[in-house]
Each structure stands twice: as structure tokens, then as C-alpha cells.
């Protein structure tokens, strides 16, 4: 077993970016995942986590030879030892997008067997990379103070200064006392109205409370995603959002794209790639409140049908209200895996699965349904590539991939693929 390097300071040269917000370095035959650096830089890396084996994790705490792409960090709380929010805050926007493009291309090559040049595009409303976010969820520490989780830690940074969202989102929050262990959802909606909702602490099982390993983490995630009491503190709790000339009133704690320009941009691209015809049947899977369903409905017309499947009953209710004037859209509150066998055979399928991806069961069912065109959306390059690999194994061709900088200042990226047969 290798020596534990935790706490060691190592001078290393940084290589390519890796999936997860770090650059890869090597020292004495081991791999080091170094955050807060840039490719080509020589840095002093402080090892923050070493569980043995072939790799460890570190922060760049001193920049010996800086990259020309390095800027003064735009986020004051995300550096070494800080919050996990803005891991690319020290990189120019162009450099950050180039790193994300490299990661997406590498995942597609390694997992899906696809050699592709990827360009990460800017979304409207990004500006210089700050103030683009419309919603943020804060954790609450044991003293009742809201803030951001530190990287890979249960500790919370209570200085509310992450610049992804307009500073007005934080006004007065630190002066209030919140329930320890709760979360605070803040939304600045399309009209600039602020909504603040306190979400009660998750009821974690004994396994989740006591186990530090994978079983405990799984139990804690399950508890966090379960039904929890909500208390509206500011606003109505029903933000207004718009795509084109259509308006949605939805729950503040429900899903909507974080970047202000994302929903409109993705909706336009989905419509462009879907190319559904009048009278077609279309599946909109993991459909949320029906943003894509609205665009697809215009293509299939009143003689066609769009079936949108979404697990959240509340999202389906909000979508049904927003699309009440579009009878060809049918929203189903169900797990995608269970709903597909009862839907009419589609000509087009659109999927926007969670970060873990659609997975083999869903992909195999879609492939068996035989649509001519599939539009697949993914917010994690690895799971996106795994799903693409499954579709290709099922006989589909990867026609196009476009990637968007939907999360400036961070390593996260949104990718969209068009597949045909």
C-alpha cells in the first residue's frame, strides 16, 4: 500500500482536464487530481484526500508558472478549501469552455467509441459569467445559517457571495434563523420576483446517519429526494418562467433550467432536430413541466400526439396547466421505465434524463420502439457518453453533438445529441 500523502505539498505540472473539475498530474508513479489549476501550469499541490491506490486528490495552493488563461478568481468562496460551487472561477470563459469541450470529447471517445471535435457554445445571457443563474439551493448549518457546501464535505461556507446568481438573491437571508439541516431554495424568476422556500431536513435512516460508506451515501440521497415539508418565506413560491410566448407557473422547488438562457436555447434545438411531422407520435421522456413537449406539439399538430413522461406529480400538474390549450400533449406522472410500454409507437423520441443518464433499460426500450430520430440531452459527460454508446449498439448513428456552457465558472456542461437510423 502506498504512503498516505494527505497534507503533503507537491510541486507538479498539470496535464489535461479530467471529468470532475480537475487537471491530471503525476508524481512518483501516482495520478493526482488537482483542482484550481489549469493545463500546462506548474503548481504546488496540497494533497487533500488520499485513500491509497493509484490516485489522490489535491488543491493547487501556489501557482509557480501560471497559464495565460488564468484570471483573478471571480468567486471569492470557491478556492482551495472553500465551497464546491465555482471550480473554474480562475479560468477565462474561453479556457473553461475549451476544458469542458476536451472532457466531453474524451468521454465520447473512451466510452462511446466516437472521435469528434466538440465546441462548447455560450448561452444567451451569460455575459462575463456571473449573474446567469435563476435559482440556487442553499444548505443550512447546525447554527441555522444558510450557505454552500465545501467541496466533498458536510461543512458549510456561510459567506453568501457566489456570483453565479445576482446578489439580490441573498438579501436578508443571513439575518434570518433557519432550521438546522434544512435547505433554502431561492429563485429569481422571469419577472425578477424573488421566491424563497425553506425545505425541511430530510428524514435520514439509521444507515444514512451511521454509515460513512456507499450504503450510507445512498440512504442520504434517497432521503434528500423524498417528500419534505416546505415553508414559503418570501414571494408566492410560484415563480413565472417563459419560453417563447408561453408561460409556466411552477413550484419554486421544482425543476427548471438554472441558466436563464438554457430553456429557450434547448427548446429551439430540440425542435430543429426532432423534425416531427403532422400526425406523428412523439415521446418526451423525463419531460418536466413540458417545455419540449410544447415545441414538439407545434410540429405534430392536432392530428399528432406528444406523450410526456415525468416522475414528479407536481411538475406534471404545472405542465398540464401551462399546456391546457394544447390537446395533443399528454403528460404522465410515472417512472419512465414503467410508462413506455403503454405509449403509442413513436416516430421521434426526446430524452432529458437526470445526471445518472437514461441507462440500459430505457435505452433498450426506446431502441425497440424504433423511432427514426432521437434527441438525447445530458448534463454529465460520462453518463451522456454511456447512453450514446447504448444507442449506437442498438443500430443508431450519431449525427450531431452540440455542447453548451450552461454552468459558467464550473466544470459542468450540457450536451445534446441527434441520433438517427
Explain the overall architecture.
The chain has 421 residues and is α/β, with parallel strands linked by helices. It has 3 domains: 1-70, Nucleic acid-binding proteins (OB fold (Dihydrolipoamide Acetyltransferase, E2P), Beta Barrel), CATH 2.40.50; 135-188 and 194-234, no CATH class; 248-420, Rossmann fold, CATH 3.40.50.150. The chain has helices at residues 93-112, 206-210, 214-225, 262-274, 291-300, 313-322, 336-339, 359-369, 381-393, and strands at residues 9-13, 17-18, 22-27, 30-35, 42-49, 55-65, 120-121, 135-140, 146-149, 156-157, 183-188, 194-199, 230-234, 240-243, 246-249, 281-285, 305-310, 329-333, 348-351, 373-378, 397-404, 414-420. The strands form 4 sheets. The chain has an 8-stranded mixed beta sheet with strand order 7-21-22-20-19-16-17-18, sandwiched between helices. Strands 1-5-6-4-3-2 form a 6-stranded mixed beta sheet. A hairpin with a 2-residue loop joins β3 and β4. α4 (262-274) packs parallel to α5 (291-300). The longest helix has 20 residues, at 93-112. It is globular and about 65 Å long. The N and C termini lie far apart (50 Å). The model has no long low-confidence stretch (mean pLDDT 95).
Outline the fold blueprint.
Layout: E1 9-13, E2 17-18, E3 22-27, E4 30-35, E5 42-49, E6 55-65, H1 93-112, E7 120-121, E8 135-140, E9 146-149, E10 156-157, E11 183-188, E12 194-199, H2 206-210, H3 214-225, E13 230-234, E14 240-243, E15 246-249, H4 262-274, E16 281-285, H5 291-300, E17 305-310, H6 313-322, E18 329-333, H7 336-339, E19 348-351, H8 359-369, E20 373-378, H9 381-393, E21 397-404, E22 414-420
Parallel strand pairs: 4-6, 7-21, 16-17, 16-19, 17-18, 19-20
Antiparallel strand pairs: 1-5, 2-3, 3-4, 5-6, 8-9, 8-11, 9-10, 11-12, 12-13, 14-15, 20-22, 21-22
